[in-house]
Amino acid sequence: MQDFLNTELWSGTTVGSLLTLEFLTAILGGALSALFVLTTGFVIAGWLSRRIKGLASRHSKLDQTLFDFLSNIVWYAVVGFSALIVLNTLGVRTTSVVAVIGAAGLAVGLALQGTLSNVAAGVMIVLFRPFKLGDFVVINGQMGTVKSISLNYIELADLQNLQIIVPNSQVWGNTIVSYSANPTRRVQWVFGVSYGSNLAQAEKVIMDTIMADPRAMKDPEPFIQVSNLGDFSVDFTVRVWCANSDAWGFQTDCTRRVKEALDEAGIEIPFPTRTLYANKLADEDGDEARHAAE
């Protein structure tokens, strides 16, 4: 037993010296200190994360997604800092640990370039906020309502309520069209009337019908002009402003009302027609040729 206790481990340190009361006390004290620091770190990280998320819930103008992202960053930063303190308390050289983590991060980054590009694009989307939850947008040719914004992808619900997942790298690098960004919209129609119609009367019927709708705005001033002399019709282009939320219903309702108003006023709405002229002389020649062949 004595020989075992006198066994040298390193640099004059023996097994017996490790089993002394002072050494055990130091180990226990270090473990308790590390546990206290780590627990305190988790408590502080959770408290700060909840506080940051609470800022968005108390102010309706603040974007919840942005504060969720910031709260996650703060949580990981506090926990990571606490872990470094724990390692330092246990006698581990943190500079070496940081170097190893950096090398491992580089290797992982090279292996996950596509995923990290989505994360980088997600950070830009969260910080610059080209759209927010609930906006109706067109992203990379996909149209829908924004349901979720994460660091990897954007979730949309299209007009049929189908789920569409768009990777963030395809969002940030492409054109984004937002139908919800501005409080007002200018709705446009094109109505065609026949060439024999009274244009002044047609213009008045169209404009009076649209402006009678309470959703139509008189300021900015509405627009109506003859925009095209087509093959079958004289075309009026009409543009009227309305609230953003009313745009779709306003456009479809007025399209039907204008058609009914033009019919009531006796103004013809033409449609493509084709007139065929029979060549009588060619028919007679063809009959003679058939008789001669017989």
TrEMBL record:
Transmembrane segments: 23-48, 69-91, 97-128
Gene3D superfamilies per UniProt: 1.10.287.1260, 2.30.30.60, 3.30.70.100
Sorted UniProt keywords: Cell inner membrane, Cell membrane, Ion channel, Ion transport, Membrane, Transmembrane, Transmembrane helix, Transport
Sequence ranges assigned to domain Mechanosensitive ion channel MscS in this UniProt record: 115-180
Compartment(s) where it occurs, according to its Swiss-Prot or TrEMBL record: Cell inner membrane; Cell membrane
All residue ranges annotated as the Mechanosensitive ion channel transmembrane helices 2/3 domain in the record: 72-113
Main location: membrane
Protein topology in the membrane: Multi-pass membrane protein
Ranges where the Mechanosensitive ion channel MscS C-terminal domain occurs: 188-269
Protein's UniProt keywords contain DNA-binding: no
SUPFAM superfamilies listed in its UniProt record: Mechanosensitive channel protein MscS (YggB), C-terminal domain (SSF82689), Mechanosensitive channel protein MscS (YggB), transmembrane region (SSF82861), Sm-like ribonucleoproteins (SSF50182)
KW Membrane (keyword) present: yes
InterPro entries in the record: LSM_dom_sf, MS_channel_1st, MS_channel_C, MscS_archaea/bacteria_type, MscS_beta-dom_sf, MscS_channel_2nd, MscS_channel_C_sf, MscS_channel_TM-2
PANTHER family, alphabetized: SMALL-CONDUCTANCE MECHANOSENSITIVE CHANNEL
Family affiliation: Belongs to the MscS (TC 1.A.23) family.
Known partners and oligomeric status: Homoheptamer.
Function: Mechanosensitive channel that participates in the regulation of osmotic pressure changes within the cell, opening in response to stretch forces in the membrane lipid bilayer, without the need for other proteins. Contributes to normal resistance to hypoosmotic shock. Forms an ion channel of 1.0 nanosiemens conductance with a slight preference for anions.
Protein name (Swiss-Prot/TrEMBL): Small-conductance mechanosensitive channel
Naturally occurring in which organism (per UniProt): Limimaricola variabilis
